[in-house]
Write a structure and sequence with these properties.
Number of strands: 14
Order of helices and strands: HHEEEEEEEEEEEEHEEHH
Shape: globular
Structural class: mainly beta
Length: 317
């Protein structure tokens, strides 16, 4: 599914929308998984309940700006025999505002930043010595995507092709264990490669499409789900994994291999919970990202599109 073809999918969950249009393909497993017994105030089989809980876990439905943080590591995967190698760390956040559309539908107004960090020092990098290019120094282009908007509702609607639209109920694959509630998303997408290899030989993979898969896990207190009608935010934490092509700024061109990401995620009670270095860098370089968007804007953008707008093709050395 093309990222630009989503109608009511895709959320910038916990600040990872750049990375992800979230309800893009909530998979047959999520829509047709095993039935679960309703417990108290939350029915895991009810699409309306799922939408209401998801909106609250997706940073909250109060009218102000809500924040979600992530931190992880990015690895290089080359062939089936080479050992997977860590390249750099990644840390950032999303600023989100929810607008109710009625009938358990919410408009998610979202923008996000993510900063690549040195493995050894933990410092935000401006340049990076690419070991796969013999240590060539490349300029780092950090994630700053605006907007990454979406609609959350009881029904997932996605355009699969010209004139082809599929709809299915939002039913997350919940697992209840003790006082915890756990669920996940498997998101498999692709979109048209905006970097023509003839113009961007070092930045482009050379493929017609960019394929990205993202896998998210969420953990919340079961009691908070049962009490969803009485709260505007459900605190959650979890994990996020991503499989995708080389980033344009790495200058890997069509070299074989891809990237694998793994990270921790957490919804934040306030902006004051942001790490000091992340907040300071954002306030200096991208101050608009400290607040969520005020108005709905289309279309969403990817970091590949941002790179194309802000850069020129790099020459071979």
């Amino acid at each position: 599914m093309d990222r630009r073809q989503l109608l009511t999918g895709g959320t910038g969950m916990l600040g990872m929308g750049a990375l992800l249009p979230m309800l893009a393909n909530a998979s047959a497993a999520a829509a047709q998984g095993p039935a679960m017994a309703a417990t108290g105030g939350f029915n895991p089989n009810d699409p309306t309940h799922n939408a209401e809980v998801l909106a609250r876990m997706n940073l909250g439905i109060d009218p102000g700006t809500n924040y979600g943080w992530f931190k992880g590591r990015v690895f290089a995967v080359i062939g089936d025999e080479q050992v997977i190698q860590p390249l750099f760390d990644l840390e950032g956040f999303g600023a989100n505002r929810m607008e109710s559309l009625g009938n358990s539908r919410y408009r998610s107004l979202h923008r996000e930043v993510g900063y690549y960090k040195d493995l050894r020092t933990g410092q935000i990098m401006e340049t990076w010595a690419n070991p796969m290019l013999g240590g060539e120094t490349v300029e780092v282009s950090h994630i700053h995507n605006n907007p990454v908007n979406s609609i959350i509702g009881p029904t997932i609607e996605a355009k699969l092709g010209e004139g082809m639209v599929t709809e299915f109920p939002l039913r997350l694959p919940w697992t209840m264990m003790g006082d915890l509630a756990m669920t996940s998303f498997d998101v498999n997408t692709r979109w048209k490669n905006v970097l023509d290899p003839k113009e961007w030989p070092r930045e482009s993979s050379g493929q017609e499409y960019v394929r990205v898969s993202e896998y998210l896990q969420f953990v919340a207190k079961r009691a908070d789900l049962e009490n969803w009608r009485s709260v505007q935010r459900i605190e959650s934490h979890g994990a996020w994994q991503r499989i995708g092509t080389w980033l344009p700024w790495m200058l890997m061109g069509n070299k074989p291999g891809h990237l694998f990401y793994r990270s921790h995620t957490k919804s934040l009670a306030s902006v004051d919970e942001l790490p000091k270095d992340i907040r300071a860098y954002t306030e200096k370089r991208y101050p608009i990202y400290m607040d969520a968007p005020e108005k709905w804007v289309e279309p969403n953008v990817t970091s590949f599109e941002v790179y194309k707008l802000e850069n020129k093709p790099k020459p071979f050395k």
